[in-house]
């Protein structure tokens, strides 16, 4: 089977809201420049991450590219190109006091975020239907601890009237350095989910439930994944062995991910 596509799409998950200014000296910051995903059949795909100082300017491989525009240290626009379909999506990001509060997509959807006093972040996704009416697709809550996204609860709003669909995702982390953490403005991009957490994800558990509100019957499913890491002397990952690619795509033929700085 040919190597999988690496995905950079909106996932509506996120990270603790912290200041976009880094305490790390830009000249000393360790930043991932290249990611090589290798499959069990030996095929591979290389993703290049390009920077201006410590600002990400683009993430690019043979199937998809994302370009980033900034206002100061905040990412205010992301343009994503699917090289297979030649479809371009533009995301406009809005902030209040350095907190991401809204993402507006050229694909006719909007995601609104509310930063709660208890440190959680609530969100809602709205789309335009055929009649140009706003319809809520899903909503949920993001939970954080020690600058890591530890849980996300998502409730679907466009299901049948007699059912409630909920997905709960929990993450476990190591105590090492996320190789993208030093990138300016990246740690507040809620649409990149656990990828912008302070540490590296070593486990992920997804529980999906559908409850029939008339009978109270619940149907559920469980999906778990685990990652094994190797690190350099500075505590940054150099290799991941696991079921998922770095950008969270699950593939049965995924062998490992290699990082180059």
From TrEMBL:
Superkingdom of origin: Bacteria
Taxon lineage: Bacteria, Pseudomonadati, Bacteroidota, Flavobacteriia, Flavobacteriales
Stated name of the protein: DUF4595 domain-containing protein
């Amino acid at each position: 089977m040919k190597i999988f596509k690496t995905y950079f799409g909106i996932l509506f998950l996120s990270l603790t809201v912290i200041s976009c200014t880094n305490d790390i000296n830009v000249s000393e910051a360790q930043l991932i420049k290249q990611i090589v995903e290798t499959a069990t059949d030996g095929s591979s795909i290389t993703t290049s991450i390009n920077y201006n100082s410590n600002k990400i300017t683009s993430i690019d491989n043979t199937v998809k590219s994302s370009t980033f525009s900034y206002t100061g240290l905040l990412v205010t626009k992301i343009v994503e190109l699917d090289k297979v379909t030649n479809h371009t999506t533009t995301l406009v990001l809005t902030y209040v006091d350095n907190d991401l509060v809204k993402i507006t997509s050229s694909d006719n959807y909007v995601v609104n975020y509310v930063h709660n006093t208890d440190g959680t972040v609530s969100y809602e996704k709205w789309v335009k239907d055929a009649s140009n009416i706003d319809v809520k697709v899903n909503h949920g809550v993001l939970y954080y601890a020690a600058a890591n996204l530890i849980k996300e609860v998502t409730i679907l709003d466009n299901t049948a009237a007699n059912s409630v669909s909920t997905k709960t995702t929990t993450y476990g982390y190591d105590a090492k350095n996320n190789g993208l953490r030093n990138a300016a403005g990246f740690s507040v991009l809620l649409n990149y989910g656990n990828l912008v957490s302070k540490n590296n994800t070593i486990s992920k558990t997804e529980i999906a439930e559908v409850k029939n509100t008339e009978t109270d019957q619940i149907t559920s499913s469980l999906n778990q994944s685990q990652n094994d890491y190797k690190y350099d002397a500075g505590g940054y990952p150099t290799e991941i062995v696991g079921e998922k690619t770095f950008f969270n795509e699950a593939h049965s033929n995924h062998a490992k991910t290699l990082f180059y700085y």
